[in-house]
Amino acid sequence: MARIKDVAKQAGVSVASVSRVLAGHSKVSESIRQRVLGAVHDLSYRPDLAARRLRSRQTDTIGLIVSDIRNPFFTEVSRAVEDVSYQHHLRVILCNTDEDVEKENLYLDLMRDENVSGVILSPTLTTLAGFRARDYPFPMVLVDRCDRDTAADAVILDNVDAGYRLTTHLIDNGYRRNIFFYGTTSATGRQRREGYVAAMAAHGLEAHAEPVRSTATAEHGRAAAYERLRRRPLPDALVASSGLILLGLTEALRESKLRFPDAVALAGFDDLPWTRLVEPGITVISQPLYEIGRAAIELLLQRIAKPDQAVRRVVLRGELIERGSTAKRNGSAGVSVAA
Amino acid sequence: MARIKDVAKQAGVSVASVSRVLAGHSKVSESIRQRVLGAVHDLSYRPDLAARRLRSRQTDTIGLIVSDIRNPFFTEVSRAVEDVSYQHHLRVILCNTDEDVEKENLYLDLMRDENVSGVILSPTLTTLAGFRARDYPFPMVLVDRCDRDTAADAVILDNVDAGYRLTTHLIDNGYRRNIFFYGTTSATGRQRREGYVAAMAAHGLEAHAEPVRSTATAEHGRAAAYERLRRRPLPDALVASSGLILLGLTEALRESKLRFPDAVALAGFDDLPWTRLVEPGITVISQPLYEIGRAAIELLLQRIAKPDQAVRRVVLRGELIERGSTAKRNGSAGVSVAA
DNA sequence: CTGTTAGCGCGTTCAA
DNA sequence: TTGAACGCGCTAACAG
What is the number of CB-based contacts under 8 A between chain A and chain B? Predict the structure, then answer.
């Protein structure tokens, strides 16, 4: 393995000159430049990153900490983060917390030890409470989860609005006894529930929100829905606060031999391929997933460049995609309102 | 930020003793141990990884290079890799190649520069040709893709067998004009096609394999299938060589207003949630995804521990999951064979 | 068992 | 513009 001193010797210059040529920002005569580049090529020299990092105190590495990469939301976000990072010559360290605060803290400690350039975090509820980015020794951007008073850059959906619109759509289409299944492990589920509750109240309807411990799998959502579907009377509609919970609800309906929208309507979040494929299609709020990831990494890059600039927040709007699972009911309230 | 010398001073010992206590493998008196640990705690000392890596020439980092993390196969594999890595105090650097050889090479160079402990790679066809793990300066394990003569540790499905069994199942159930859509960008698709061709031949049937440039999205599969479904006569069945292509085929059938299995049967790979949800369920070969990822990282850990041991290969068997999309045809060959 | 010391490979002063 | 020398923080020899 060739070292910088080997290159210097081969080129007949000092190691400092080699370093300068490689760094590119200092003034070096063209002749030295050429000789160094030639030697680098001849020796197949590659700078030692460990040494460079020790000296420069920079790692060109960012950390991506999510609850579970298998959640399609985070899958897509991580892809965007990796894409942009790659373009900026940054490596990405991937971490899954499983909504476990201890694991999350271990990973955050790891980020400090790694001296990463920055971190993109989807925090647990516990960590989000009173969260301040400047309490950490590295730049950090939150994604997907963030409260109104959180002191950190963040990229989120307008969750309250999304929950409100999705619920209003159901009500407009004649569904009145709507049950909202929301994940209790993240701020997102609670915010969407808030919108649901507001929409129900705005129409003089009683809200029924079912908490779901939606830790990464759809299983909890399925179980909760299945339990509810055994009781009578049946609700008019089931609403999921996330893509994973929606999957669980769909499974529960299938298992209960209930067709939607005839027996029970269904709606939720994330426009994943299967929501289109399951007949007659499932109504969802679509999030611009890749865009969210891209915004997060770009916010982080800006924060790295200007550590002291004011906190910024990117709030994206979800798109309501109406499908058969919430088709208008005959003689429904929606119709009478329209009349 | 406290340094090792600060800890040494605070504890009234030498830096070497601090290093020994932290390393744990040398003999140190209990009194020094306690004092060092106390000082470490008092000063909130954290060793500098950059310095440690420069000195020890080890990074405790592994690279995971896949075509696209959004492919559910790699999503699940990456989760397993991260889990096991975490347990072994290893970090994971995530890389997406998009089946692009140039990107793949850049990432492999990066792995060298990073001096990673090892790499898990899902190689492009180009890279797989004549691949030898020992041509690289770090331990490497292949996942998902591997030829018979590849000189590298690898974890793969028995793809030929899986393609054969899936096709045989179709034939047994009375489907004879079966078209196989396979991804041309990976060895996996070709191997599964091989099994398909063999099964068709074994029953005296003509094989029709349609190449699909399945670069990470289902779109190419959808387009290819849609094109074919416009022509007459229709085939008896569509078979996908991967989960993503299966998604595309399903979309094409939906778009063509063709119901399965009545108009055309459908089968493919990967037992993802949606294959159960799309009525009447899609027949698939299920791969033990998490298991594949786990086997890969464990193979890598063993290779790291014993760099010179013989090349090993883990070949897993897929499980045929029969669903409505390939229901037995009336008066079919399957019935007559069974009679 | 403990301390002293010499690097690991590089970037960056400081003089020239 | 260029080169010599120092030190980033740590681990591993070596000597005691």
Answer: 119
What is the distance of C-alpha A40 from the center of its chain?
A: 41
Domain locations along chain B: 4-47, 61-157+289-317, 159-287+321-326
Q: Which DSSP state fits B137?
A: S
What does the angle CA B43 – CA B48 – CA B49 come to, to the nearest 5 degrees? 145
Q: Hey, of B75, B78, B271, which one would you mutate to test binding to chain A, going by the most A CBs within 10 A of its CB?
A: B75
**A271 and B CB contact within 8 Å:** no
The partner residue sitting opposite B250, judged by closest CB among A70, A95, A277, is A277
B93/A91 touch (CB, cutoff 8 Å), yes or no? yes
Residues on chain A touching B247 (C-beta within 8 angstroms): 273, 277
pLDDT tens readout for residues A216-252: 578 889 999 999 989 999 999 999 999 999 999 999 9
Q: Which residues of A touch B279 (CB under 8 A)?
A: 278-279
Chain B residues 175-234 with CB within 8 Å of chain A: 218
Chain B environment of A254 (Cβ under 8 Å): 276-277
CA of B19 to C1' of C2 (A): 12
Interface membership of B54 toward A (CB under 8 Å)? yes
> How far is the first Cα of chain B from the last one, in angstroms, to the nearest whole number?
80
Indicate the pairing of strand A208-212 with strand A178-183: parallel
Query: What is the CATH class of A159-287+321-326?
Result: alpha beta
Helices (H), A133-288: 159-172, 187-202, 219-229, 243-255, 273-277
Q: Which CATH number fits domain B4-47: 2.60.40.1120, 3.90.79.10, 1.25.40.10, 1.10.260.40?
A: 1.10.260.40
CA dist., res. B188 & res. B163, Å (int): 10
Q: Bridge partners of B93?
A: A93, B63
CB contact under 8 A, B114 and A93: no
Query: Domain A61-157+289-317, what fold?
Result: Rossmann fold (3.40.50)
Tell me if chain A has a CB within 8 Å of the CB of B50. Answer: yes
- The per-residue pLDDT string of chain B (339 residues; one tens digit each, 9 = 90 and over) reads 899 999 999 999 999 999 999 999 888 999 999 999 999 999 999 999 999 999 999 999 999 999 999 999 999 999 999 999 999 999 999 999 999 999 999 999 999 999 999 999 999 999 999 999 999 999 999 999 999 999 999 999 999 999 999 999 999 999 999 999 999 998 999 999 999 999 999 999 999 999 998 665 788 899 999 999 999 999 999 999 999 999 999 999 999 999 999 999 999 999 999 999 999 999 999 999 999 999 999 999 999 999 999 999 999 999 999 999 999 987 544 433 332
DSSP characters over B32-73: HHHHHHHHHHHTT----HHHHHHHH----EEEEEES-TTSHH
Q: One fold for both B4-47 and B159-287+321-326?
A: no
User: A54 to chain B, minimum CA–CA distance in Å?
Assistant: 5
